[in-house]
Amino acid sequence: xxxLFICIFLLLIQGAIIQEGYAISLPENDTLYxxxxxxxxxxxxxxNPDTAFVYAKxxxxxxxxxxxxxxxxxxxxxxxxxxxxxxxxxxxxxYLLNAIASYKKVGDKIGVAESYNHLxxxxxxxxxxxxxxxCHQEALKIYEQLSDKKGKAETFGYIGHLYEKQKDYPQALxxxxxxxxxxxxxxxxxxxxxxxxxxxxxxxxxxxxxxxxEYFNKALTFNREVNDQVTIINNLNNIGDTYRKxxxxxxxxxxTLQAYQLARKMNQKDRLRSALRDLSKTYAFIxxxxxxxxxxxxxxxxxxxxxxxxxxxxxxxxxxxxxxxxKEKALVVxxxxxxxxxxxxxxxxxxxxxxxxxxxxxxxxxxxFFRYQRLKTRxxxxxxxxxxxxxxxxxxxxxxxxxxLKTELENKRLKELQLQQELETRSRELTxxxxxxxxxxxxxxxLKVKLNEIRRSEKDKTRQIKxxxxxxxxxxxxxxxxxDFKRFFEQVHPDFFQNLQSVCTDxxxxxxxxxxxxxxxxxxxxxxxxxxxxxxxxxxxRYRLRKKLKLEERANLTAFLVSF
Length: 564
Known about the structure:
Layout: H1 2-23, H2 31-43, H3 49-66, H4 69-85, H5 89-106, H6 109-125, H7 129-146, H8 149-165, H9 169-186, H10 189-205, H11 209-225, H12 229-245, H13 249-266, H14 269-286, H15 289-337, H16 340-457, H17 462-477, H18 480-492, H19 496-503, H20 509-519, H21 524-531, H22 535-549, H23 557-562
Keywords: Coiled coil, Membrane, TPR repeat, Transmembrane, Transmembrane helix
Transmembrane segments: 350-372
TPR repeats: 113-146, 193-226
């Protein structure tokens, strides 16, 4: 219930500030007092937005009563910036348009240009990109007319930022580089730090991490020169990001830890949370899941704390807005319809009613918020448990994949062994086939000899025997056995003839047969028998083959063919 009590306490303080602010009785015709209110509002816009709102609203009311156009313009601009910082972009646009109209009325071109730039950012976050770009271009025209270099540089930065968010990186680079050149001429270190940071962001989006690191490092140098500690935290964190995205986790840890320590020292909670989240990512990539989980858990805890505080402040701001509007209406009613004392009494009663109603509403909101936080914590815990279960499942799947890989390797080894055995079997078949051819030809040779003897001894069967001998001679020339042999041979040595052809293109069919038989390392007797030629003819054939293959005299023909 602690956030609830804090919220009620802040509500009472804000009510007191508003009451005190309206109770101040200073001369409304004094423009210096209005300027003081506007200056004070501008001063507190970033550090204490609630106080800034009160002063800006008072300045606007007094300026409108007096008809002080410059005061109206500045007050509207401050209120526009207040709502922009709070995420109320529609209200911000409304106030900034009023500011532009008032600045034009008094001829303050610088005020018009600045308000156009603020309006462009409000339209951008309100998702009206084209209108936002038009606003920045209007601001740029004014700064060019006034030859205001710093204003031009700021506007170029805004336009480049728009193009970056639309992923039009070439245009984004063009405008950011224009801004960089102007700041360089002006020697504006703070401006240079901002633009180099933008350039680094663009190159990081383009995944050009070395270039992104170069610009982030330059931004770090510039911001150190102007001692902008808050922006330095962003620079260190961005450099750590570029190292992590390039896989350089050791250097990434160095810069991210520096960002973490500086954010912690300066109590910059949003930047501290960003550093914690980046540290978790880096340790996860390294494989140190214990530290990764610890930093991620710290990031979630810090996020919850920031969310709690921001929720309380947001409710207090909403109450402040509500109270201020109610107070304005009460003042108008008082001036128009009743006397001063009666108005004060009614205003007091209204405040009591508002405080009571606000307290009840805040109490309800606090209870709902507390229950929501409990539910969110439980869901985060369940998500963490689910993540751990997923990691365990992935680990088991990895082990299973390793086992499957081993099985596949074993199957591959067995298949290779089977193929080797098949190759050996086909080699034996090839040799057997060659020997069968040798035996057949030997048989035919012997049969031919015998038939010649018969022919010489028996004259009456001469014609038939001649025909028989001619048939046997013809069988020597048949290619069927050679085709079978060639088929077996190519199964064992699939690339032999192709490689042989690449060395010598004019080999005859007879030469190829001789090369195949020599590749099998058969004896000269077996080769001559298979080819049906004499030993002398075989020697001549071998000699001619050596010449066609262009072998040296000392080169071994059989060894050369085995190399294929």
